[in-house]
Specification:
The chain has one domain: Class I glutamine amidotransferase (GATase) domain (Rossmann fold, 3-Layer(aba) Sandwich), CATH 3.40.50.880. The chain is built from five helices and eleven strands; from the N terminus they run E-H-E-E-E-E-E-H-H-E-H-E-E-E-E-H. The strands form three sheets. Strands 5-2-1-6-7-11-10 form a seven-stranded mixed beta sheet. The protein is globular, with a radius of gyration of 15 Å.
């Protein structure tokens, strides 16, 4: 089965990253938290230190189906500044694999100019960075192989949207009820 990788950079938004990992693991989806540095420990934007499953150099990108880019500041900027990850994001977009970004991270996709003709959303104040997108204020937008979401408050919706790729809409809705979300 294909895997999901949640990429962690110093200053990532903890709830956005860990909610995705938690929900996907509940859905029995193979997900890994990956540090973009050589250190497995990454500190989030609110000072919470998390131990990643892997470091970037250990990732088997051929086994991945989804790249997840959490928001947070300066986490999103640090993800975007890490060229090896951005090269992989470009490959995933070219190969029509999924790239999911939440909060400030959708700006990365806007800067790459891959949102033309797609619906996308982001954290308030970053809308101008979504070049070419039809910007919405929905909680989550799935437009082709691009998934975007607005922020910490929409992290469960974002994670369930990614889970739906693997387990289907009905199972994702059942999971939502099981965790007392909807």
């Amino acid at each position: 089965m294909s895997k999901v990788a949640v990429f962690l950079a110093e200053g990532f938004e903890e709830i956005e990253a860990l909610t995705v990992s938690d929900i996907l693991r509940r859905a029995k989806v193979d997900v890994e938290n990956v540090s973009i540095s050589d250190d497995r420990y990454v500190t989030g934007s609110h000072g919470i230190k998390v131990q990643a499953d892997k470091v970037f150099s250990e990732v088997d990108f051929d086994s991945l189906e989804v790249i997840v880019l959490p928001g947070g500041m300066p986490g999103s900027l640090n993800l975007e500044a890490f060229d090896p990850l951005m090269d992989r994001v470009d490959e995933f977009i070219e190969k029509d694999k999924y790239v999911a970004a939440i909060c400030a991270a959708p700006q990365i996709l806007g800067h790459k100019e891959v949102l033309a003709g797609k619906r996308a959303c982001c954290s308030s104040g970053f809308e101008g960075e979504l070049k070419g997108a039809e910007v919405t204020y929905e909680r989550v937008e799935k437009s082709g192989n691009i998934i975007t979401s607005r922020g910490m408050g929409t992290a469960i919706d974002f994670a369930l949207c990614i889970a739906e790729i693997y387990i289907g809409k009905e199972a994702a809705e059942a999971l939502s009820k099981k965790i007392a979300y909807k």
